[in-house]
Amino acid sequence: MGGESFLPPPSSSNEDASFVSQDLSNVSLKSDCSSGEEGLDAKRVNGESGLHFEEFSEVGYLNISERQRCKAYADVLRSYEDLRTRLERFEEGKRKILSYTPGSWVENAGGMCLKDYSIPKITSLLLIGPKGSGKSTLVNKTSDVLEDSVFASERAQVSYGSSGADATYFLHEYIIPTGFGSFCLYDSRSLSDDSSENVNVFEGWMTKGVRHGELVTRKSDSLCVKTQLKCKARQSCRGQIRAINFVIFVVNGISILESMGSDDGTNNGLTQMIATTFNNPFLSFKDDKPVVVITHGDLLSLSDRAKIRVHIAELLGISPTKQIFDIPDDKDPATALTIIDMLHYCLERADRNLPGNDQYMSKISNTSSFLARRVLLVVLVMAILLQVLFSTIAKTTTTRMGGATRTTPKLHVDWREIRHLWLGDNY
What we know:
The protein is an alpha/beta fold. The protein has 12 helices and 10 strands.
């Protein structure tokens, strides 16, 4: 199941295992599934079988939306426990990602085959998110998981502290694994608080493509910042333009939790910005919208992480267990396997939504044009036959009125026009 984090495997230290078990055993649904002063506290059974929850249908005082929220919350909690059984599949999942090539997971739907698609040399996944969401950290963690080198330094620069400055002003392409991978992550500048600025940037990226070293500027940037960036842009190396094949939306779990607990509405701007950005049509591929990655979960309790996933799922209208991936800043098998699941989801949908190549689209266009001309010709011929029929009937039923004879004009058919419609513009 995608979008889930895993409990440490048996090989983990006893201290880590006991910590997670304790965290799981203290999870309660009371704060989320409550009515008045009463609450719904799930039945928990610790042991090898993991967590077991009561049937929510037995709770009569919850309305439908509250029951759905409780069920989603319970499903997310179960997912953390269920992942224990999938840890042994990590190497298999990693091999599948490393063996991926663009187009290799195409479904061949609608009678199309691989040659009918426009296959990129490298599948490009775009990372977007608010300031401090953890995009650069995700790049480093993904690279660490697939390259498996303890001596490799961090590839993407990560900002620390609360200075409020952007760490990324230029698009950065990171091929995974380094140098010979078949897909890449594009680290981008943080989202603007002005949604209109984000729309303009997204439209350019999704319609014209992106390239390594491209400067990302905004109208809201100060004159000093613009001057400094222009000087740096002259020294930047711009690479090959690549089309974006799928989008990963990264959000800070701590910021989301703070906005959830804000009663005065001070943090509602973040929630609104996330919802507006996520639903931007430029970021969708047909019916597939971006995946959501939640970061900084290592600083939160497991119950808080579950609440955040359910909250985002309700906000964006997506599955909390299949399209939302909880990736904390931990170096453990749980996080590594979640990254593999996230990549599998993205690459699979990137291949599923590949556009048709020029030759195939031209063939479809020519076929459609040919069929349209034939249909039009059939309609014209039927209309002519009907007019001839009605004209004949009218002539055989003419009568004299007041000494005058009423006749129907002869039907004129422009056969040159019909031939033009049949043969097209070449005539």
